[in-house]
Amino acid sequence: MTRPMPEITDINRPYWDGLAQGELRFQRCDGCGHAWLPARTHCPQCLGARAQWQVASGRGQIVSWVVYHRAYAPHLQDQIPYNVAIVALEEGPRMLTNITDSATGEGFAIGAPVELTIEEEDGLHLPRFRLRA
Amino acid sequence: MTTLRGKTAITGVGHTSWGKHPDRDRLSLMTEAAAAAIADAGLEKGQIDAVLVKMANSAPSILWGQKVAEALGLQPAIGLSLDQGGAACTGLATYAALAIEAGMIENALILYADTPRTGSRAAMHRPRGDDAVMGWYSVAAGYAMLHRAYRETYGANDEDFGIIAVQARAHGAANPHAHLRLPLSMEEYLSGPLVVEPMRRDDCCLVSDGGAAIVIGATSRAADRSRAVPVLGLGQGQESWEVHLRPDLLQTRAQASAEMAFRMAGIGRGDISFAQLYDCFTVTVLQTLEDYGLAPRGQAGARARGEGVGVDGWLPLNTSGGLLSESGTPGLQLIIEAVRQLRGEAVLQTPAPRFGLVSNQGGTMHTHATMILGEPQ
Questions:
Q1: pLDDT tens digit sequence for B25-48
Q2: Same domain, B215 and B234
Q3: Domain CATH number, residue B91
Q4: Which residue among B126, B145, B193 sits closest to A64, beta carbon to beta carbon?
Q5: Is residue B243 within 8 angstroms of chain A, CB to CB?
Q6: DSSP helix/strand/coil, B65
């Protein structure tokens, strides 16, 4: 069994197209300035329907992380142990990602600064992060 | 302002055995539990005029409440299936109390049954939306994010989590109905295998087949007032945000839920005789104790270790074993144990309890509901 693929829709296509072009995009509301991910048609703060896609600086920090020692799907069997982290971008949006420095989280800390590194796997461009000195 | 305080009571409770039911289905388990709860309430089946079901986690189904009512041979005034994750059973009790007080119904039956142990665990292992491309799978991983944040932020040690599992397993070992009656030492907890780090195997609740039911009616019309346990406080609060989108991983709307319930009950935190807190994972209990104002931030585990959470401890906690040892079923068994305690019918009986606290919650602390019960009058 292969990895799952994201469901690309008219709403989130700019996000995945951006990654393929080497940039991490997020949405910012025209009305109130709130910034968010994942893609939505309406601002979850003011419910405005007008927003712009902007390019993130790629800098952020670790909010929390876990290390999987159990494979919950067959294709993950040869990947364990692997980490999944929550990263807060400096522009505000938060996302789930992987930190590339260590599968098992050596050297990770809450608040540790990280920077974007886009990696291609199975034709998919994935937004990952590495620890920033 | 009117209040629901004490207007309704839990008049009947019932459940099947917990564990494995390879030859049963959900309707079969629910019917057995319903018959027991209706008999315990001293009612005839025809006196039930609301059938309120929590959706089965492993089998979401359209018109599920109606399928259950059909199996019970009932045409109730109100019949529904609710999805609030693990908060749903206390949510249903809240809507039942409101409908009874409004004069719409007299006796509500609240039910749940599922067979994830012998059936499918796919719901617990599920890929979580588009984030599955990053390896984001399972219910456990969301709680592991909270566990990590708690541990790192407060400098909590492993024993702070371990005490919750060790105590639950001690209570479960004493409970003849418990799915898992195997005591757990702190050493065994600490040497348990990592599942989603930093969570170990024994931080995670059981996966159990079984069914449970309770009956709620007007306190004044209870067939036997001496066994009717009044509902004094009800609260809810919905965090809503997925765990990674939450601005603060260590504060949830459990706080607002508790405020609402304690305000309705008109009692303080110190009045509570025991607590049955939703222990799907050990961190959930620490977080709930702190959101509820029962322990300072970051101190719930240390307080549990220092002052005890056994029947004679600071706060008798999950006295029949909770989800970690009695049954992994999402929530009704906690309400049923609170009823047993307040009737004086528990296996590990707390001495003369006056007020019992129950929490139900779901998702990754996305949903929360609180119930405060009193002694029969």
A1: 999 999 999 999 999 999 999 999
A2: no
A3: 3.40.47.10
A4: B145
A5: yes
A6: helix
